[in-house]
Amino acid sequence: MARHILGVLLHRPECASLQDSLENFLDEEMRHTAMFRELNRRCAPEFYGTADYHFIKPPPGSVAVLRWLASRPWRFPFFIWIMLMQEERAMYYAKQFLRSEEPLEPHFVAVQRKHLADEVDHVRWDEDLLQRLWVPATRAKRRINARLFAWMMGEFFLGPKRAGLNVVRQLAREFPELLPSLPEMGHQLRALEHNQQFQLALYARSIVPRTFAHFDRWPEFATLGRVFQGYSNLTGAK
Ligand SMILES: [Fe+2]
Ligand SMILES: [Fe+2]
Fold first, then answer.
1. Is residue 14 domain-resident?
2. pLDDT(235) > 70
3. Which domain range does residue 118 map to?
């Protein structure tokens, strides 16, 4: 998604003075995709030997709609908020990998270390993009985009739905003794969307402090606590 958006923004007049950074950004994201794909292939060649996706099977209709929206980020700057949030989270989790006292698989640690080094700049560039695409937007446009943001986060980024369930199904295939528990496991996985502890492990001020601080500035995000249990607007913007 980021590659799609950045490719378009490279040619937008609002971003002309950010050209070099955006080219770097795009180049690094392409290298990240290749790096994570390679890691997948090493871990599970039976799944990723010939395909980039295995557990994630996005419906073609949704992909087409998202692609259409993402090709117009100047109209739909909520994508930049998603990028900012996910990139700041990626930094947090990468740091957890590097700090782990348990010995972790070295290829995973190496990939996370490389990712962390690049994402620091990405978060800064996302903030720069918001300055250009969000700050000058009309109130109506910000309101619509804040709703789209809340919808998209709820649909794709809050709890295990499609791909998460596929992972558990695969687990039961590998350990058939789990098969009788599969319906209950699926039920409990789906319930995580409303589980406060789980939600706080995904999105909290300690994980995405910069993103939450930016939300605080905008009244359009005042009700975001309905989506993220860990978020409450600190400035009381209405
Ligand atoms: Fe990345
Ligand atoms: Fe990134």
1. yes
2. no
3. 2-221
Report CA-CA distances (Å) from 169 to 44, 52, 173, 180, 195: 16, 19, 6, 11, 21
Q: Provide the sign of the torsion angle of the four alpha carbons 11, 33, 52, 63, taken in this order.
A: negative
From the CA atom positions of the chain, what is the Rg in Å? 19
CATH number at residue 167: 1.10.620.20
> At CA 193, angle to CA 190 and CA 198, rounded to 5?
110
Q: How far is the CA of 89 from the centre of ligand 2 (A)?
A: 10
Question: What ligand is nearest to the CA atom of residue 30?
Answer: 1
Question: Which-ligand-closest: CA of 120?
Answer: 2
Domain for residue 207, yes or no?
yes
Ligand closest to Cα of 115 equals 1
Lowest mean pLDDT segment, chosen from 46-50, 101-105, 134-138, 234-238:
234-238
Cβ atoms within 10 Å of 108's Cβ, excluding its own:
13
Give the pLDDT of residue 58.
Answer: 80
- Does 228 fall in a domain? no
Q: What is the pTM of this model?
A: 0.92
Examine residue 34 and state whether it is found in any structural domain, yes or no: yes
CB-based burial of residue 230 (10 Å sphere; 0-12 exposed, 13-18 middle, 19+ buried)? middle
Cα 166 to ligand 2 centre (Å): 26
